[in-house]
Amino acid sequence: MALSLKIHDVSVLYPGQQKGQQVSALSGVNLDIAAGDFVVALGASGCGKTTLLNLMAGFIQPSSGVITLGDFQGQVPQEVSRGAELRDQVTGPGAERGVVFQKHALLPWLNVLDNVAFGLKLRGIPKAEREQRAMHFLELTGLADFRGHAIYQLSGGMQQRVGIARALTNDPQMLLLDEPLGALDALTRERLQELILGIWQSTRKMMFFITHDVEEALFMATRLIIMSPRPGRITHEFSVDFGKRFLACRDARAVKSSPDFIALREQILSIIHGDEEAA
Amino acid sequence: MSLFDEKQRRAVMRTFNELRRAAPAKPGEQYGAPGNGSSVTLSLVTIVALFALWYAATNGGWVKPLFLPSPQAVWMQLVDVSQEGFADQTLLAHIGWSALRVFGAFLLAVLTAIPVGIMMGVNRVARGIFDPLVEFYRPLPPLAYLPLVVIWMGIGEGSKILLIYLAMFAPLALSARAGVKSVAIEQIHAAYSMGASRGQVLRHVIMPAALPEVLTGMRIAIGFGWTTLVAAEMVAATAGLGFMVLTASKFMATDVVIMGILVIGAMALLFDLGMRWLERKLVPWKGKV
To answer: Most A CBs within 10 Å: which of B182, B185, B194, B283, as the mutation test of the A interface?
Structure first.
């Protein structure tokens, strides 16, 4: 069954500073993500990107609207009735939706290898097998030599890579990534962009990827959504294929310096700057 | 007319400004970190100086032995009581009885207070029930409820162990509860997103995250235990370090009193060193993440 995720008219309200006041973190958000989609959310701080991710992960519940998880075979019901879809409603986190956190959220009492193999251990997979699968992703993220290290012995960028390897090892059907590459140096960042694209291509996992970086957003996305703050909402959506082009030619620089890439980058930058001036 | 000329005034101001700033960092140190540098030498000097003062004051005849016996007299008592005994018990028997009471109560407290504290941290019902009880009795001095404990439990070992147990229960339970609260919500979310059950989150995330606080709580609790020991041994004890000190004070045997205090101090110190070693082994990540 191919997984899909549907967000229907979702709003999130937080209690504000003053009594009785409510702050709208997200307002009237609609988004359907199907298998094979690589959705990248781009926007200024405070536009509700992380709130949206937390909703999908099941860490928070919407104030109104529904989020459902299931197989819609591309057919989205016209009317979402809560009763009919209660079965598929997202009410909490699940192993089919892996999360890479903004701050690594690793377990400091486990070494690198045990952190990466943690999800498999929870499922009772034998030690030899889970370590073999964890090593595969440690090698892909360039951390094989650090498998025995303690978490606090690693740099911030390496800790972030352990977090990515941990989510990949658990093999979820959907990956939710909250600015996963923000803390990395430029070189590692590009390598991991390509790694994540490669994994997406070979597994067709659904991806929801948050970033501040316009170039990264354009390079990775099949669908690029731009969000705007106060209240948080989706204002634009672009369909792009630079990631696919990269996977065909394996030349990131050529893709990122192509005229249509640059033109679209400038267009998106002007949208974001327009938002900032309006705000 | 100024007291200093301009050059002197500048030099004074420069010195003053230098004193207002922290000293430059030595290799391996962070500039401005509070309490930089090793304090071991100063501690050793303090101990040696105190000991020398004690030796001089007693051997020089500045104070009467009744108020402060000499180090030699205390050492003599240590040897004498270990061989001959005091109040019909050897020093080893006194130490053994006290250790049995303190560590027996400690074991019971660890086995009950830590689960209660963890329950208080993770469960609203347990917190609601235990919070008023623990918070009410926690500030009470053990001497205040000692009579009640004696009325309930009699004058045997039960009342002594219960008194020490009660003194240890609150710090242990509260540290376990604080430990549960110290876990990052992202760590819990990460575990759930990898398919963990509630039990697995408790076992593999919350309990290890609480361990540093629990170990600190154990160190504090054992300190409370030694503090309460003397009170517990006030009632109908025939052996124990607290009993020995109290009995010696009735006979004005100040040298035995000081010897007993030093033995209690040494035992508490040894246990604390052991706990610190255990901390380094069990929670090397403490304070680093």
So the answer is: B194
